[in-house]
Amino acid sequence: MAIHKEYEILDRISDAFFAVDNEWNITYFNHEAERLLNKIKSEVLHKYLWDAFPEAINQEVYRQYHKAVNEQVPVFFEMYWPPRNMWYNVRAFPSMNGLSVFFQNITEQKDLATKREEHYKSLFHNNPDAVFSFDLEGNYLSVNPAMEQLMGYTEAEFTNMNWNPLVIEDEVEKVNSYFRKAATGETQHYETKVAHKDGSIKHVKVTNMPIIVQGQIVGVYGTARDVTIEKETEKLLLESEKLTAVGQLAASIAHEIRNPLTSVKGFLQLMKQSTGESNETYLTILSDEVSRIELITGELLVLAKPQAQDFQVADVGKIMKDVIALISSQALMYSVDIQYKFGELPKLKCIKNQLKQAFINILKNAIEAMPNGGNIHITVNHENDRIVAIIQDEGVGIPEEILSKIGSPFYTTKEKGTGLGMMTTVKIVQTHHGTFEITNTSNKGTSIKITLPTNLEAVEDLIL
């Protein structure tokens, strides 16, 4: 009676089920097995399994069942059954009396999985960007056709390579850092340079992300886009902008120098035609005009020639005090009193002589802006990892419409100025990754605010 109840339960379960004895004779075949295998129970019951299903001989199912029986271990596998065009999920459990087999129809799930896999393969193979994967040692596991085209190697060649030799030597350490971060679970975005199989260098934008399987990082997935043409275009645009700037500067130089040269030429002609005391006046004017040419060319040399990068730790407060001492005689001549107040200042990594030149230029301008005397107020403080220097004068101020043009070459409010001094000052501040602001004060005069970051490690890679 118990056996009949057991069979009744096996007939009602959703899994297909059959059993065989030690001689491979079918001892039980439930209703779901009839449906999935399209066999009538009476036709197969007590029949030799491999006679009932001869098409299974030498297939995976044959090997798995014999493994279960011979080794007395359960087996679990998926199989495709051609007669029914179906996929089954199979679980077989051996015993001393034979083998019990449970199986389910997973054709629909397999179809969905196949479609997802095909979608993935399509995304992988047809992606216009290079797509690739690595193991945790950086060895290529797979590449798509775009990667083959980008680098010139075939997929077979890639799968026997590591990424390291493909990155140019100067970039290897940087790329290795990004790769290791991706291998620990942190997605990375960066640009680098790689060597094509033909030896040419390509600029690429890369994304690396971890490959996670069952909660474990097993590799690194990557995409790369060729930006070589973009980089070359950027370089050409930059060169074009430089040439345009040089052209504009050259035109300004020609204009500024032509005026005193015209005077020199005119007075030389007058001196040839005349004699007497008038020559003394002409010589004075000629001397002034030649001095102006010297001033223009001298400031241009300071601005244009490459400067040695000598970043050293210095005291900005002391630099400012030295400048005040240096400029004090000129301030006295103009009846200008320089007042200053410094807070507690940290040491700053800077190019000392350049900062001194910048402060001299600013103070000279402030003094000359007060021909009738006045006060210059200087404060230097440390705020939020930046040194902030504010220099205020009590001069005539600068009209708002030309305030934004201060710092342009040959743009000046002074009758004999060139504008190059302030341009040099702005450039020095920019070299130190600082900011330069010039505004009119609420009462009168002008205020210049300079900020300099106290962490200048990155600045040392720049040139003036």
What does it look like?
By secondary structure, the chain is of the alpha+beta class. It has four domains: 109 residues, PAS domain (Beta-Lactamase), CATH 3.30.450.20; 100 residues, Beta-Lactamase (2-Layer Sandwich), CATH 3.30.450; 74 residues, Helix Hairpins, CATH 1.10.287; 150 residues, Histidine kinase-like ATPase, C-terminal domain (Heat Shock Protein 90), CATH 3.30.565.10. 44% of the residues lie in helices and 26% in strands. Strands 2-1-5-4-3 form a five-stranded antiparallel β-sheet, with helices on both faces. It has a five-stranded antiparallel β-sheet with strand order 7-6-10-9-8, sandwiched between helices. The longest helix has 46 residues.
Search tags:
464 residues, alpha+beta, Beta-Lactamase, Helix Hairpins, 4 domains, 5-stranded antiparallel sheet, 15 helices, 26% strand, disordered C terminus
Secondary structure layout:
Layout lengths: L1 H11 L3 E6 L4 E4 L1 H7 L3 H4 L4 H4 L7 H12 L3 E7 L4 E10 L2 E8 L1 H20 L3 E6 L4 E4 L1 H7 L3 H4 L13 H12 L4 E8 L5 E13 L2 E11 L1 H46 L4 H27 L7 E3 L1 H18 L2 E7 L5 E3 L1 H17 L5 E10 L2 E7 L7 H4 L16 H12 L3 E6 L5 E8 L11
- Going by CATH, the architecture of the largest domain would be 2-Layer Sandwich
| Structural class determined from secondary elements | alpha+beta
Share in β-strands: 25-35%
Radius of gyration: 43 Å
Please state the oligomeric state of the protein chains shown: single chain
Biggest β-sheet description: 5 strands, antiparallel
| CATH-level-4 superfamily name of the largest domain | Histidine kinase-like ATPase, C-terminal domain
Widest sheet: strand ordering: 2-1-5-4-3
Looking at CATH, which topology of the largest domain would you report? Heat Shock Protein 90
| Average pLDDT, all residues | 81
The percent range for helix content is 40-55%
* DSSP summary, beta strand count: 17
Shape: elongated
